Amino acid sequence: MALRLYRSHRAALVDYAKGITGSRAHAEDVVQEAWFHLDRKGDDPAIREPIAYLYRIVRNLAVDSIRRLLRERTRCGVDIEEAARLVPDESPSAEATIIARDDVRLVFETLEDLPERQRIAIEMYRFGGFKLRQIAERLNVSIALVHLLIAQGLEACDRRRNEE
Does the keyword Calcium apply (predicted)? Predict the structure, then answer.
């Protein structure tokens, strides 16, 4: 019953909460929290008017969230939402992404050109997370040789990236 009630009144509840919070996104969060509250109550016989009860929950949660936001602003002296918008975006630029993709392409091309044993050693170490000892056992060579194969292979990858 609670789910049917929520679905049929969700849009109106969001509009109602938006009138209190001033933000559609904030209103969506409030209505969702109200749904969780109502769902936890289940079919409580004490709730005689479930629609009115749901609206009351939305109102109380919306008012509480506004009060909490005002307390944060008073305590911090800053609008938290405004401060969040001022935080710089740390995602890489389009140029950095293209350069990184090109580097990856060059590394994979270089790996394909390496001798098979060296390529396997690098792939196991860098991509598989294997220890030198495990690689040495798999390739049936010494740990020192595995170390040398990996070091020389990675140097070849770096040279190729620096050349292009």
Answer: no
